């Protein structure tokens, strides 16, 4: 039975989020709100949790998982970032953008893309999520919470608990999230003098980051 943590969207209660962190540290999977939709998250270096995450979403190892980071300095530990890439990401973070970058050796091979050795990273702009990451002291591996057979992310935390209560360890309820996904930008070619490539247009506008 999944535990249920009802937090204030603007003033999240640290006591409840600390309890959620304990579940993650024990190998649990949580449903948490972000600035784009609810997501399933687990520890980066927990093989069993990562495998369970993929099974719940019914995605294979070619599906890009995303690292939720607290800030750009943490992001640069897990991706190779040059000055051009950094300047662009600085304009876009925190916010509803996901960046595809070349993964560093800090990222386990089982969670980076198997052929390209890339990883998706983002810095979410949501107080509860930021506090959870701060309490965790490390990035979380995430995937958008889309139920198998569905096209749209789930947005009702009570419906998420009912649907996944026997598959995940907890739900962090901070109210509804926007249903518009993040804008996904592949920045890998920028490392060789190329340009950012738009993979998916979502909530983040290109004009806001000078593209």
Can you put this structure into words, describing what you see?
A hairpin with a 4-residue loop joins strand 2 and strand 3. The chain is globular and about 50 Å long. The protein has six helices and ten strands; from the N terminus they run βαββαβααββαβαβββ. The chain has a ten-stranded mixed β-sheet with strand order 1-8-2-3-7-4-6-5-9-10, sandwiched between helices. It has a single domain, classed as DHBP synthase. By secondary structure, the protein is of the alpha/beta class. The termini are far apart. Helix 1 packs across helix 5 (127-136). The longest helix is centred in the first third of the chain and has 12 residues, at 14-25.
Salient structural properties:
26% helix, globular, DHBP synthase, alpha/beta, 211 residues, single chain
């Amino acid at each position: 039975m999944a535990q249920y943590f009802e937090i204030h969207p603007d003033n999240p209660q640290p006591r409840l989020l600390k309890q959620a962190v304990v579940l993650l540290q024990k190998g649990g999977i949580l449903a948490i709100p972000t600035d784009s939709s609810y997501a399933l998250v687990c520890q980066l270096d927990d093989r069993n949790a990562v495998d369970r995450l993929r099974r719940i979403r019914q995605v294979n190892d070619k599906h890009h998982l995303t690292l939720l980071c607290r800030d750009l300095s943490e992001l640069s530990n897990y991706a190779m970032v040059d000055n051009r890439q950094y300047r662009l990401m600085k304009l876009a973070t925190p916010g509803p953008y996901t960046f595809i970058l070349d993964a560093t050796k800090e990222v386990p091979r089982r969670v980076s893309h198997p052929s390209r050795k890339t990883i998706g990273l983002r810095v979410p702009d949501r107080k509860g999520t930021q506090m959870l990451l701060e309490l965790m002291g490390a990035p979380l591996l995430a995937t958008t919470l889309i139920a198998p057979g569905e096209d749209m992310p789930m947005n009702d935390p009570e419906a998420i608990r009912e649907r996944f209560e026997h598959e995940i360890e907890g739900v962090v309820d901070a109210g509804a999230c926007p249903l518009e996904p993040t804008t996904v930008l592949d920045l890998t070619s920028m490392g060789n003098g190329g340009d950012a490539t738009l993979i998916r247009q979502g909530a983040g506008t290109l004009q806001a980051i000078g593209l």
